[in-house]
């Protein structure tokens, strides 16, 4: 990355901040490689805070120029007009991904709004704050298509898909994730939205050791698969994803749908299509959901891939 390109970063932030909604939003997405020299920096608008992530080691000049730019921005009328309360840099390339507050005071546990729904975030303690912003269109799709459906949400994390599904009228959602703390945040997210928790299950299971229990709660009208690209000791996308796809026929209703997601730049959309053809040929590829416009990428196959599949008997 190049310090000389940071004026482009701040010019973009200024323009996006002018139009920033009251909801959580990505303001700058360097990782889409649209901006030369800024490929490893992002900026999110989170409850009146600017959260900047630097993903790879940079020289001291870059960091000092970045901080100076933040301080200069904090002196503008725009900063006051938008009510910005904090700007911080998370150094994702360092052990522990430390967060450095540059201006203001950090609210570590804000409640944010996305598409009218509330989510509890936790900033600075982990690499990710509890909601993947590039998945907004996926959550919106689920909210629009979940009415009267039973939903299985695999690798549920903090249950964003579950919140969207219940809001959209799902009769039940089964969330499965090994991280009990993430599921606890998921409960909080449902409570924030005044959902009936009797309609939601939270299973702290190892998916690969729990198929019998998961199947027993089905069959499901919609299965959502949103795994990490790699999780040491538990999941490797290239070899383990197909193990999940093979289970789909026994989990789904006759007209069931699958929303299958991959967020690895090394794995393209064709991986999911060919893997599904091999593992569950009765499930047909229907469409790929758009990503939010702010997550533009010079290579769409390197960006997030959210793919819809349906059983043969499903409506198109």
Automatic annotation (TrEMBL):
This is Methyltransferase. CDD domains: AdoMet_MTases (cd02440). GO terms for molecular function: methyltransferase activity. PANTHER family: RIBOSOMAL RNA LARGE SUBUNIT METHYLTRANSFERASE YWBD-RELATED, SAM-DEPENDENT METHYLTRANSFERASE. Residues 25-309 form the S-adenosylmethionine-dependent methyltransferase domain. It holds the Pfam family Methyltrans_SAM. It comes from Vibrio zhanjiangensis. GO terms for biological process: methylation.
């Amino acid at each position: 990355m190049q310090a000389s390109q940071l004026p482009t970063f701040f010019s973009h932030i200024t323009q996006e901040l002018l139009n920033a909604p009251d909801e959580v939003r990505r303001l700058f997405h360097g990782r889409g490689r649209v901006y030369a020299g800024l490929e490893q920096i992002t900026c999110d608008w989170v409850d009146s805070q600017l959260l900047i992530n630097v993903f790879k080691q940079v020289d001291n000049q870059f960091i000092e120029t970045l901080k100076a730019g933040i301080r200069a921005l904090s002196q503008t009328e725009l900063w006051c007009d938008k009510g910005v309360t904090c700007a911080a840099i998370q150094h994702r390339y360092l052990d522990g991904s430390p967060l450095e507050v540059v201006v203001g005071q950090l609210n570590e546990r804000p409640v944010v709004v996305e598409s009218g729904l509330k989510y509890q975030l936790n900033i600075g303690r982990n690499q990710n704050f509890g909601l993947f912003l590039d998945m907004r269109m996926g959550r919106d799709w689920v909210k629009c298509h979940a009415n009267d459906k039973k939903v299985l949400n695999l690798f549920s994390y903090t249950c964003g898909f579950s919140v969207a599904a219940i809001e959209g009228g799902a009769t039940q959602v089964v969330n499965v994730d090994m991280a009990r703390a993430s599921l606890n945040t998921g409960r909080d997210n449902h409570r924030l939205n005044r959902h009936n928790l009797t309609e939601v299950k939270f299973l702290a299971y190892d998916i690969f050791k729990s198929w019998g229990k998961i199947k027993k709660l089905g069959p499901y009208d919609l299965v959502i698969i949103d795994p990490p690209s790699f999780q040491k000791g538990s999941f490797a996308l290239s070899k383990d994803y197909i193990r999940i796809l093979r289970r789909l026929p026994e989990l789904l209703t006759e007209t069931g749908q699958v929303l299958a997601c991959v967020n690895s730049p090394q794995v393209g959309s064709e991986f999911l299509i060919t893997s599904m053809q091999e593992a569950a040929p009765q499930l047909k590829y229907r469409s790929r959901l758009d990503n939010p416009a702010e997550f533009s990428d010079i290579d769409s196959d390197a960006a997030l891939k959210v793919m819809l599949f349906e059983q043969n008997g499903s409506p198109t």
